[in-house]
Each structure stands twice: as structure tokens, then as C-alpha cells.
User: What shape does this take?
Amino acid sequence: MDLRAEILKAHSKKQAIKIADYVSDNTNLFKALVNLYLCGPYRITQRCAWPINICVERHPKLLSPHLKGILHQLTRLEIHDAAKRNTLRMLQFVSIPKQFHAKVIDLCFAFLQSKEEPVAVKVFSMSVLFKVVQDKPELLRELAIILEDQLPYSSAGYRSRATKILKATPTLTLS
Assistant: This one.
């Protein structure tokens, strides 16, 4: 299968699953898919994010050698919201090494506090943040402050995830 041609053929759940099924847990095919994601152009990056996400959900260890590049991709200004959303979603399924914690924390707090980011990006950011800052009480407290501050003005999806996170650790609740 020509991954690039398949990525360009269609952008649908059926196509994303077809590509993910083909890649499966093959590290070489996954590397080729990630390289397409990282090299773009933006349409290819956007379309690669979904099958990569499916592969990582099924086989989390596949992402480890590519984590640095994937995180760097999140810093690019022109990255499509779908790529951001799927990248953050996949980070929920992997263990993030401590060497990347600072970068992940900075990115997720920035996405969470941005007025321009879509709700899905914010929701996945809060989940990844919660996972990464479990052993950092001061950052857990900062996360709680931000979540509670935005709750009255947020969407149902945001409120649902924020409430679950706040309830998951009783020390998070401010009020």
C-alpha cells in the first residue's frame, strides 16, 4: 500500500481505520506514517493524524521513538486543529517520559488557556496535563484554578471533562 496515496484518497473514519489496520504494529510502516505526518504539507498532516491516533491507541509503544517529533509538531503555528486534537488525544494513551514533561505541560497549559483553541483541543489538553502533573501538587493546583475559572463559560464537553478531573483528585476542588 502506498501510504501517501491512501492518505490523499479520502478523509473518513473508514479510510483512517483501513490505514491503521494496514500499519498495525509494524514499526517501519508506523515510522513511514509519522514521517508523512511530520513532513506535511498541511493536508497530509491533517489526514495522517487520525490513523496515527488509532495505531497509538491500539499499540501505545509505537509512539515512543517519535514522541520528540510529534511534540515539536504541536509547536508549529500552522498545524491544523484536527492534527492538534488527534495528537493530544494520542498522548492520553502513552506514558510520557519525564524528559518531555516540561514541554507537554507548557503546550497543554497554553492550549487550555487560549481563547482560540477548539473545545476538543482544550479537553484533551486537560486530560494530558492531569496525567503528567499527578506528582506536582503546585501544577495540579494551577490546573484546578484554570478549570474552575473557565467552567461557568464553557461548553458541555469541557464542563464534563473538567468536572471528572476535579472529582478524580479531591484536593483539586477549590470550593
Notes: The first helix runs from residue 3 to 9. DSSP finds ten helices and no strands in the chain. The CA atoms of residues 23 and 118 lie 29 Å apart.
